[in-house]
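## retry 2 of 3
previous attempt timed out at serialization; input unchanged, resubmitting
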Amino acid sequence: MEILIALAILGMVVVAFLSALATGSQAIIVADARTTAESLSRSELEYIKNSAYDDTNNPPQYSLDPAIDIPDGYNVEMEALRLDPGNDGIEDDEGIQKITVEVYRQDGPTPSPQDTLILSASEYKVNR
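## retry succeeded, writing output
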């Protein structure tokens, strides 16, 4: 009888240990995805901030950095908006634009609208 109780306790300990390993493994995967997304967004924002200021197109057109190797399973999107800090209603942005970079992780083998948004980062580009 004591052997059965000891085996039951040992079984519960093993299950708890394996559950902790699985949770830890999942946490590492999530942390890795977030770190990759942060690195990608930071690099793209710096590239766009260092690009020539687009004061002709509406919305402004900036390209993503061709030198950045985007890992498989990730998708990077960028949006630039003209701002009107003077609220004068004129379409000029008075030298300030909002740049948003979004990093998605693909849920399947091909990019789709259901991809998971990992990180969205915004900064302002100023015409200096």
